[in-house]
TrEMBL record:
Ranges in coiled-coil conformation: 195-236
Protein name as catalogued: C2H2-type domain-containing protein
PANTHER family tied to this protein: C2H2-TYPE DOMAIN-CONTAINING PROTEIN (PTHR46179:SF24), ZINC FINGER PROTEIN (PTHR46179)
InterPro entries noted in UniProt: Zinc_finger_trans_reg, Znf_C2H2_17_1st, Znf_C2H2_17_2nd, Znf_C2H2_type
Amino acid sequence: MSDASGTSRTSPPPRQSSPNSLTDPTSPRLKVAVQRASPQTNQNDQFICTVLPECSSLTFNRKCEWSKHMDKHDRPYRCKDPVCAKLQGFTYSGGLLRHEREVHNKHGGPKEKLQCPFETCKRHDGHGFTRKENLAEHIRRVHEKLKSDPSIRTETVITTAWSAATELSPQAISATSTKRRWSDVPSPDPSESDNAELRGEIKRLKHDNVQLQEQMDKLRVELDTIRKEARSAATAGFRAA
């Protein structure tokens, strides 16, 4: 009897938690990081949960199942956004607050945006990075392939050059429209008119081809410069970290 009472005095009370206290960033509970204890087993060597009384009847045959259940207790700081419903929770308040700030632009949003230096990358503008180590890792995983794989490098340069070459200026569009309007006027000698138009089209295509080649050469030089700047930025980021 005395042993039982002594045990009850020394044993910590079970952790009581409500759904709001687990996810509300203003809750005092969010200020404490939870450390997971070693798993306990019953007489049948099944894993059990002793955190809350309502979990005492639960048993788990595999440790991974027990770990998934314990995430509800040890990773209680979950994002309320429906998009993040399958996202694993966070063990401390800072993780949740950082996630909400960087992903959902809450709490004032990220302090600064670090953009990828590669202009053809989708992370060059719009959704960038908030930490230097993430930008450096992105450059290493994504853009270092350009240096090691000539086919990817050539394809990227050609795609960029072709996109730039096919962008028509307002003057070019106006000239094209005027040309089409004149072509609608009946000509007294259709064959001669068609030949002249064909020669003009060939001449224009040759001129466009020369310009395209010049733009490709220019893009190759710019790409080499961007690679050097990216390597320097990545090195500086790793040193700063």
